[in-house]
Amino acid sequence: MEYEAVIGLETHVQLKTKSKMWCGCANAFGAPPNTNVCPVCLGLPGVLPVANDEALRLTALTGLLLNCTVAHSAKFDRKNYFYPDMPKNYQITQYDRPSTMNGSVGFEFAGRMAHVRITRAHLEEDVGKNFHFERNSGVDFNRAGVPLMEIVSEPDITDADMAYDYLNALKSILIYGGVSDCDMEKGMVRCDVNVSVRPKGQKELGAKIEIKNMNSFSGVRRALEYEIPRQIEVLTKGGRLSQETRRWDDVGCITETMRTKEQAHDYRYFPEPDLMPFVPSAQWLEEVRGRVVELPLAKKQRFMTAYQLPASDAETFVNDATLGQYFEKIAAQSKNPKSVANWVINNLRAKLTEAQTTLSDLKFKPADILELIDLVESGRISTRIAQEVFSETFATGEPPGQIVQKKGLAQVSDSAVVEKFCDDAIAANPRSAEDFRAGKAAALNFLKGQVMKLSKGKANPNLVGEILERKLKQSPNT
Ligand SMILES: [Zn+2]
Question: How far from each other are the two terminal CA atoms of the chain, in whole angstroms?
């Protein structure tokens, strides 16, 4: 019998706000333990939460970016549970009336467009962090109360690679929208994976197994690559699977039981009595709508059609949005956007890395790249000289045309002059000339190189090729 996997993901994302969800404490990573805390986020008695408006806006914005409906009335609920990293002993979340729901994410997967439906994106708060030392444990509450958004997908994902690509697509949308920095190293994105298997063609879902607290996308992929065959093996051997929560052991590369259905939490949700339902005004929604940005995939497709770029170039500009912006500024004024892309990606980007600087600190003007392309396309300088000129423009900010003039770098296309260089090269390398006449085509390239050397790279390479070939085909004694 053939089996198929059914996967849904719950992705938790820390929102990019200055302060926490219910208090004015800083939402900042890396501060000394328990320095960004106050009576509200420590859950002391007698305090009242005040919702962070920016967090509400970022959640609504996410809804719009994920094609969700933004609720006209959303509500907060208490989810009760008892862990030392949860000072209030409950988490404020959204249970039955989330901020946004019913959307979808489209992304490229295995050479086609894939769509994963989004059940909901709701707002809640992060918990603190436990640390275990040799003889004792500690809790850092800096993270407690940081705005956290949970994005729940429908079980539309069918394998480990698709889960990985979905997560990356989601991440780039959230970064583009300015919703979250999604820095995995800082734990800004975490994932719960729901996975079951069923005989192919069967409608009902198999026993739902949840893998909790994944903190890397590649970990999610590895866990699914282990878990799906494990479940199939249990069933093919005649065993039964039942609903449970498992944990992924990234060192052992296995999943193991954390708790079964009998040990599942009873969260005893009830409406949060300290917060009114959130009813956004038309103006508020309009302002959020104004923050909707072009999504990465749409941008990639636009770059490919508007500028005739190959997919790889378009992807480079999608992944490095500021570089993409810079490219667009120049490409808009150019007849040859592909040349602009080549200069920006191959030369400028390399120089930026080499000099450890950024686009905002460039010494030259974007129009200088256009000038450089013009110098090459009009045959005034060779591509090799153009690299030299660009290095200097990059270092000093001097316009390319000026450098070419000052240093006498213009390409030599005067055939009498080029002919002289060719004669000299042939005379200095009689063996190579003989080799070429004997049929060794490679000898021509060597001689071309010699001519370029003699002309200090300034001879027009096409002219050099023509003249050399003509001269070598003549008999040596005529
Ligand atoms: Zn606080």
Answer: 83
Lowest mean per-residue pLDDT among 4-8, 96-100, 461-465: 461-465
Q: How far is the CA of 146 from the centre of ligand 1 (A)?
A: 9
CA 270 to centroid of ligand 1, rounded, Å: 23
State the pLDDT at residue 475.
Answer: 59
pLDDT band at 381 (very low <50, low <70, confident <90, very high): confident
Half-sphere exposure in the Cβ direction for 455 (13 Å, CA): 33
Measure the CA–CA gap between 71 and 97, rounded to whole angstroms: 8
pLDDT in tens, 403-444: 988 888 888 888 888 999 999 999 999 999 899 888 888 899
- C-alpha of residue 187 to centroid of ligand 1, in Å: 20
Q: Ligand 1 mean position to 137 CA, how many Å?
A: 22
- Burial class from Cβ neighbours inside 10 Å (0-12, 13-18, 19+) for residue 325 reads exposed
Q: How far apart are the CA of 86 and the centre of ligand 1, in A? A: 13
Q: Tell me the CATH architecture of domain 415-473.
A: Orthogonal Bundle (1.10)
Instruction: List the domain boundaries for the chain.
Output: 3-288, 415-473
Ligand 1 center to residue 13 CA distance, Å?
Answer: 19
**386: amino acid identity, one letter:** A
**215 C-alpha to center of ligand 1: Å?**
25
Which of 108-117, 155-164, 189-198, 429-438 bottoms out in mean pLDDT, i.e. has the lowest?
A: 429-438
Query: How far is the centre of ligand 1, averaged over its atoms, from the C-alpha of 39 (Å)?
Result: 6
Q: Separation of 131 CA from ligand 1 center, angstroms? A: 20
Residue pLDDT, tens place only, 279-296: 999 999 999 999 999 999
Residues within 5 Å of ion ligand 1, judged at the Cβ atom:
23, 25, 38, 40-41
Determine the Cα–Cα distance for residues 12 and 68; give it in Å rounded to an integer: 17
Contact assessment for residue 277 and residue 87, using Cβ atoms and an 8 Å cutoff? no
Length of the chain: 478
Residue 292 burial by CB count (10 A; 0-12/13-18/19+): exposed, middle or buried? exposed
Q: Per the structure block, which two tokens stand in for 123?
A: 């707002």
User: Cα of 435 to ligand 1 centre, how many Å?
Assistant: 82
Tell me the pLDDT tens digit for each residue of 344-354. 999 999 999 99
Query: 17 CA distance to ligand 1 centroid (A)?
Result: 14
